[in-house]
């Protein structure tokens, strides 16, 4: 199993070190770790946020564990040289079209949620967002009409094969969880969504063990706040998923706890190739202080073991250890606690 570690900028190297510590503690057989520069450090050392050798390493690896990129000293650079471009370049090069973001309420953290604790307690959901299509990638422009008014437009589209492959990811994820899939669209007004819905229904025939439901996105936004406990897996397009996944993350609380996976179609000898990263950024405001919470990266490593290496048991062990550490009061500054990065990593290892 070849794992590419890309720590990146800011708190990236700090949180990555603790995720690696947790992986090491599992004593997995036949793992090789590679490490390379990405983001601002990539630019400063090699002249590009995604240096060719980093890209080659990511392509050759079975999975990529990514810290965070973002460096205020790069603010003046042209767009294609900014650290954040690295993540887009990796997604494209690795064909990653499915973004998985779990939102789970850890016992004892209900008070940090934007929701009432009794509502927040029930959150255990996974948002599967399509990443490569939708209104972000269609023809777009600001043009001037005959009467002189300016008009902006962005062409929204999904081809059926694009819907089909993300639907499969959603159904398979549901099979590994509580076997319920909610497809979110806006089929009452959008043709794109009508096709989305038709294709999801078609694919559902292959997953008779998964209960499929459909919800309009406006209602989904409301239900996420009103009764998030009703959701297991949510599958949706790029635009709706962008918004709903951010909304869901605030329902569970701290940014320092939220993991993500980006998956493609490429299969390795061990599972689906993917890139795993915390949803937070490089947090330049706390970089180098040893106070960053590594749990989101540790939980991203758990997702990596699950999706790219078929190691459900070890993934669940990591998740349980994080939950136990939190229940025991091991909390970083982002959770109102005082535990430092190393201390949190050690606490998770001790509970594996
Ligand atoms: P951010 O997520 O880096 O930080 C937001 C706030 O949360 C800060 O106060 C930070 O200290 C805190 N925070 C974040 N992660 C934390 C952790 N693990 N433990 C404790 N506190 C934590 O977002 P911000 O400040 O908007 O962006 C900083 C840089 O990161 C920018 O350059 C941005 O472009 C980049 N960024 C990169 C992402 C990525 O690599 N995928 C995602 C989001 C932002
Ligand atoms: Mg967003």
From TrEMBL:
Site (Important for catalysis): 136, 186
Chief subcellular location: cytoplasm
Superkingdom in the source lineage: Bacteria
Pathway field: Amino-acid biosynthesis; L-leucine biosynthesis; L-leucine from 3-methyl-2-oxobutanoate: step 3/4
Localization, UniProt: Cytoplasm
SMART domains, sorted: Iso_dh (SM01329)
Any Pfam family the entry gives: Iso_dh
Record has Protease as a keyword: no
Assembly information from the UniProt record: Homodimer.
Job of this protein: Catalyzes the oxidation of 3-carboxy-2-hydroxy-4-methylpentanoate (3-isopropylmalate) to 3-carboxy-4-methyl-2-oxopentanoate. The product decarboxylates to 4-methyl-2 oxopentanoate.
Name this polypeptide is given: 3-isopropylmalate dehydrogenase
Gene: leuB
């Amino acid at each position: 199993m070849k794992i590419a570690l890309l720590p990146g900028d800011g708190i990236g190297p700090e949180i990555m070190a603790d995720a690696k510590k947790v992986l090491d503690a599992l004593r997995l057989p036949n793992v090789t770790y590679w490490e390379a520069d990405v983001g601002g450090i990539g630019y400063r050392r090699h002249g590009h946020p995604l240096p060719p050798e980093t890209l080659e390493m990511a392509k050759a690896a079975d999975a990529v564990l990514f810290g965070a990129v973002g460096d205020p000293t790069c603010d003046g650079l042209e767009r294609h040289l900014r650290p954040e471009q690295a993540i887009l370049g990796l997604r494209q090069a690795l064909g990653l079209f499915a973004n998985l973001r779990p939102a789970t309420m850890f016992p004892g953290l209900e008070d940090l949620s934007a929701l009432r604790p009794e509502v927040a307690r029930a959150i255990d959901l996974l948002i599967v967002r399509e990443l490569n299509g939708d209104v972000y990638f269609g023809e777009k422009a600001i043009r001037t009409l005959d009467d002189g008014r300016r008009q902006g437009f962005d062409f929204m589209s999904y081809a059926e094969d694009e819907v089909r492959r993300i639907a499969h990811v959603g159904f398979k994820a549901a099979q590994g969880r509580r076997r319920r899939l909610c497809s979110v669209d806006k089929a009452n007004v959008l043709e794109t969504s009508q096709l989305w819905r038709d294709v999801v229904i078609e694919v559902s025939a292959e997953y008779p063990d998964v209960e499929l439901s459909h919800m309009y996105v406006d209602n989904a936004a409301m239900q996420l706040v009103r009764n998030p406990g009703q959701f297991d897996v949510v599958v949706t397009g790029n635009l709706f998923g962008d918004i709903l996944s951010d909304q869901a993350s605030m329902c569970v609380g701290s940014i320092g706890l939220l993991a993500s996976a980006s998956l493609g179609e490429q299969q390795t000898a061990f599972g689906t190739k993917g890139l795993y990263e915390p949803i937070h950024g490089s947090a330049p405001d706390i970089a180098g202080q040893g106070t960053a919470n590594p749990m989101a990266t540790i939980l991203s490593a758990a997702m990596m073991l699950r999706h790219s290496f078929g190691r459900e048991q070890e993934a669940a062990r990591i998740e349980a250890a994080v939950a136990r550490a939190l229940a025991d009061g091991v909390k970083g500054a982002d959770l109102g606690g005082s535990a430092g990065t190393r201390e949190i990593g050690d606490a998770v290892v001790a509970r594996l």
